[in-house]
Write a structure and sequence with these properties.
about 130 residues; mainly alpha; rod-shaped
């Protein structure tokens, strides 16, 4: 199997020779390189197809995302009546509490002024 080329030619030239194929070690390595090259070409073609498919999926998903964003921007906001009434009640109660706190604060300031209590931040002698 690992003979020189001269033995190949002399073996094939003999009549009645049963040798069907003979290749040197160098020929075996060339054949292996040829097979690897063909496999690499097929692998590159397959990788190229898959990459193009992935790019098209990315482009399609971007277009769909843009379309859905525009659609959601232009559509009306639908809030169920029960949720809207709950939010409205909560809002009214919070506004009422804040108004009470503001009024209490106002009354306390009036009491402080009427009792002639001097606040530190308004005391002219405080520095």
């Amino acid at each position: 199997m690992f003979h020189s080329h001269t033995s190949f030619y002399s073996s094939v030239a003999r009549p009645g020779s049963d040798i069907k194929l003979f290749a040197s070690a160098e020929d075996h390595f060339r054949f292996l390189e040829y097979v690897e090259l063909n496999e690499a070409r097929e692998s590159a073609k397959d990788a190229n197809r898959k990459a193009l498919f992935a790019i098209w999926i990315a482009i399609l998903s971007t277009v769909v995302s843009i379309f859905l964003s525009i659609l959601s921007i232009e559509s009306d906001l639908n809030i169920p009546d029960k949720l809207y009434s709950t939010i409205n009640k909560t809002n009214k109660s919070v506004v009422g509490e804040l108004t009470e706190i503001k009024n209490d604060n106002h009354e306390l300031k009036k009491k402080l002024i009427s009792n002639s209590v001097c606040l530190i931040n308004t005391d002219p002698t405080y520095k």
